[in-house]
Amino acid sequence: MGLAKQMQRCVSSAEENLGHLEEQLLRGGHELMRQMLEKAAKADAASPRCPVCQQPLRSLNGGHRTTIQTRFGAIQVQRARGKCRRCHKWRFPADAALGLPAEGTQSPAVQEIAALTVSKMPAAEAAQLVERLVGVKISAATLGRQARQQGERAQEKRQALDEQMSGPDGRVQQDRDLQLQLALEPFTLVIELDAWNIRERDAWGESAAQRARGAEPPRWHWVYGGTCFRLAHRGETAGGRATILSRGYAMTRGGIEALREQLWAEASRRGLGRANEVLIVADGAVWIWHLAGDRFPQARQRVDFYHVSEHLWTVARALHPDDESAARAWVEPLLAKLKADEGCAVITELAQLRPRLEGAASAHLEREINYLQSNRQRLDYGTAKARGEPLGSGAMESTCRQYQCRFKRPGQFWTQTGDEALLCLETIRRNGRWHLLFPHSAPIDPSKN
Q1: CA 120 to the chain's CA centroid
Q2: Which of 79, 303, 334, 363 has its CB surrounded by the most CB atoms within 10 Å?
Q3: What is the predicted pLDDT for the residue at 45?
Q4: Residue 11, exposed/middle/buried by CB under 10 A (0-12, 13-18, 19+)?
């Protein structure tokens, strides 16, 4: 039955609705578009050069058929093969011209589908979703393999962009108003940092042997992240929820050094070189302040108010372990003093408690006093409120939780190679550079039609 007749049958059926029409059109349209794509995908026009080193290919011969998996189904393409004398390998120049991966025959659109879906959900779930919404069956193995390959390609692209950011050509990556070198109102660039844990398959299968030797197998590892935005880019939704209109992200399993370079490059894109002030807001982790001093030495630093309040609550509950109301009555005046820029007074009050506590409670008190002492120059919450600056690093905290939705599902273990690949895909998408990986996804310029 033809597509038109099938749709007419749906229209005349009392038991079928618009959804049935859409399904018929999707199925019938796929075959039509697959045929059109197969006719248009001419491989013989590819330049007979090695796609790796660009040297002319020798012993060129055609007629090599391959099947390419596209978003409309499988298509057949004939292409030529030649020998590269420099690489000492047989090459198919059409594969590069068509955008096929080095290992595989998935079209650029299928590569993008894999990258998008698997960066959000396990490959098995992605396969079901793709089949239902796109109408093409792609195995979970293919989706997983392609997502990882695209993630590795994303890492290469990120490194190249970050290295370029250190030179004069880096200006093309900056925000549009920075590229044009327009006169700007003085602005504050806010940078927030944090870290979270991811579970990997370290020494998988050797757990019992390691425990027998008295060593607990490592499983959890740190993912380091940062975000940056101009203070003026903060706003509110119609419902009054705080939001940030434009910001950059960095997220990596590669360690503190990797984050340092990635975050510096992202901050530079967002105006680090032209900012009137730079403000760093984070919890009290020592690695954060070391990174800040290394890459952002002129920045003001502020410790997240929520983390400080947690430390004071620890003391409050040590003083009043069985009376939450009394603990609250003790801690709230101290929190008010912190918001009035009276951090030193808070530290003094805590020090006066030393004679009253002993044992574990005394140890808790000393730890919290030391924490506040080490951050006493970062407790300027009254100043923050007066300037309209964030008191805490909530933007980064929520970002970490959003990333974790993918990586902390029950029963999931990762490898560093695999998690870094998907982290990079998600970060490039969030930073608005997805089209650099998949040029076909860029908005169409009407002037070129």
Answers
A1: 11
A2: 303
A3: 66
A4: exposed
* Among the listed residues 164, 163, 122, the one whose alpha carbon sits nearest the alpha carbon of residue 143: 122
Chain Cα centroid distance, residue 365? 38
- Enumerate residue ranges in the chain where pLDDT < 50: 449
Residue 54 zone, left/alpha/beta (φ > 0; ψ -120 to 50; rest): left
Q: What is the pLDDT of residue 394?
A: 93
Burial of 304 (0-12, 13-18, 19+ CB in 10 A): buried
Distance CA 449, CA 441 (A): 16
DSSP codes of every residue in 103-141: S--B-HHHHHHHHHHHTTS-HHHHHHHHHHHH-----HH
CA atoms within 13 A on the CB side of 286: 3
Strands 220-230 and 248-252: antiparallel
pLDDT tens digits along 4-56:
676 666 666 767 788 877 787 777 788 888 889 988 887 666 788 888 888 88
**pLDDT tens readout for residues 280-311:** 999 989 999 999 999 999 999 999 999 999 99
d(Cα 380, Cα 340) in Å, to the nearest integer? Answer: 8
Which pLDDT belongs to residue 10? 63
Structure tokens at 425: 């895909």
Structure tokens at 92: 């198919």
The continuous run of DSSP H or E covering 4 comes out as helix 3-12
